[in-house]
UniProtKB/TrEMBL annotation:
Name of this chain's protein: Malate synthase G
Quaternary structure (record): Monomer.
PTM sites of type Cysteine sulfenic acid (-SOH): 592
Cofactor: Mg(2+)
Malate synthase N-terminal domain location: 17-72
Organism the protein comes from: Sphingomonas metalli
Taxonomic lineage: Bacteria, Pseudomonadati, Pseudomonadota, Alphaproteobacteria, Sphingomonadales
Amino acid sequence: MTAMTDRADLLVAAPLARFLEERALSETGIDPAAFWAGTAAIFARFAPRNAALLAERDRLQAAIDGWYAVRSGRPFDADAHQAFLRRIGYLVDAPAPFAIDTHGVDPEVATLAGPQLVVPILNARFLLNAANARWGSLYDALYGTDALPGAPRTEGYDAERGGAVIAWARGFLDAVVPLATGSWRDWDGGQPPLADPSQLAGRAGDSWLLRHHGLHIELVIDRTHPIGRDDPAGLADVVLEAALTTIADLEDSVAAVDAADKVAAYANWLGLMRGDLTETFAKGGRTITRRLAADRAYVAPDRTPFSLPGRSLMFVRNVGHLMTTPALRLPGGEEAPEGILDAIVTSLIALHDLHGARANSRAGSLYIVKPKMHGPEEAAFTNDLFDAVEDLLALPRHTIKVGVMDEERRTSANLAACIHAVRHRIVFINTGFLDRTGDEIHTAMRAGPMVRKGEMKQAGWIAAYEQRNVRIGLACGLGGRAQIGKGMWAAPDRMADMLAQKGAHPASGASTAWVPSPTAATLHATHYHRIDVAARQAEEALATVPELDALLTPPLAIGRNWSAADIREELDNNAQGLLGYVVRWIDQGVGCSKVPDIHDVGLMEDRATLRISSQHIANWLLHGVVTADEVEAALARMAVTVDAQNAGDPLYRPMAGDPDHLAMQAARALIFEGTAQPNGYTEPLLHAYRARAKQREKA
């Protein structure tokens, strides 16, 4: 049991109190007693509202469950459905046309288009890699992945593959920064005779800096380098400006269940905001210390020196409204809403950037992504909470910017109203297929069995969802003021496929999209050179917004008669993905990792993946597509598979045949209690089982 200490009638875990008073508050000029009094006042004001919002979610879901129950077996009636949702308050009237008026936004968010990373905040090494992924070697990204056919044939440098890399890179330069005459293949390393001379941005020594669509390309000239010495131009590398922004994640990609976890997470955020985060580790027999990259110095064509950011602009993703934390208890003894604590602490920590050297935001803003909000009332709650935090910390109004994740059905259906509720501070909306699908299944859980998971992306509501997000965002004035984002490429080892497919995201008018690694960010950056996002947004702004009926029609498997083999295949697929993720979460506290799927393809998995898998099985179980015995059999089969896939992990404890294995117990609960979980979320059960696992470790 963690020791608790009293602060302004709040019970605070001693490690958290020490961190806040000795580190986070240090050098901010805020008196600790005043901070705790203000924090207590915020909880007193907002914790009851938070609880009321969660109760409203439950009321709406119960009404929807009842509506579907009395219509069981009838054809879906879109008009009656929409009228019902308006009657119960699930749908609200859209606001009159408006434009957001967010100010003080860094160009990486407001005007530039490029890749975005999401990284678990508990892993300092990953955080540093992501922050430093602002710039990436195109040569390395092409050479070391399947972006080009084949693989290096030797442990040393494979000159044939190197030649293919160089040819691809020069072809890319010909396409996006063409020369006035000839090809980059024939360039001699002197001042590039560009077709558009304004694309020459400057120099760094012998190297050249180009700019296209606002993004920079550095041509590294080094005739002593093993690559550059054999190149007619002395070109040793092509370095791209890549991950413009990164989200340091306190939510779906981490397993933070107690005060120790929260303090570790907050400490890493403090290191980012102070600019002094480091991590030391062993690699290849050497000890390496990684730290944040410095800014990059250049000289403009008119000989004026200037610098460019060396690091990705950092967002922080707080948790949603649902979860509470044992790290702080309210005067009545109940756990405090974790999202309120995150808002206060991450904002306090950001003072070290805002009042310091501006290691992160040059515009003087703090960027908080708020996930899993359901509708405009919850967005308004977040806006009011951020007002209160700004007052506590004596920050100018709307210093705290908000990113609204469009990943819940009620937010998608009322997106304009949600944006309107935070119109003075919004800097980001995005779509996320997995969480959004998990909520789709749970919301319409009693409407009938859902299509197979692989068919979901072809369902009509998905296309409407993706298009509505961009077009409503543009109609609300986000173009040139805020990011419009798209979801994750989940297969980090399949870069050829990513290059072939992920150009669809900027082509849709989205100004950013998530990628799973710094290497993927470098390759995805090429899409933002090939596609003019600003031009695409101008076209999308004129397009029609898909009707609500298309969005609100659930993906039901009407008239399907799956074979026993189809059902078993679907069950195994879901069970394997579920177990492969849950076992690392419960046993090792790993919230995001590359998990082999049933075909041994490594996929980046987090709680969003788990939500759809568990809800899909729960839906089929509810409607009799599968039986409890069939689910148990699938879990048993896939435990053997997952054990084999993790055989090389010395920290792994096999699940098969072990009835006391907490990960297997958690997986079963996620399925068999899935219909009862609030909005189908996995967090309550995961946190409970992870806490039990940590207690076992201490015993």
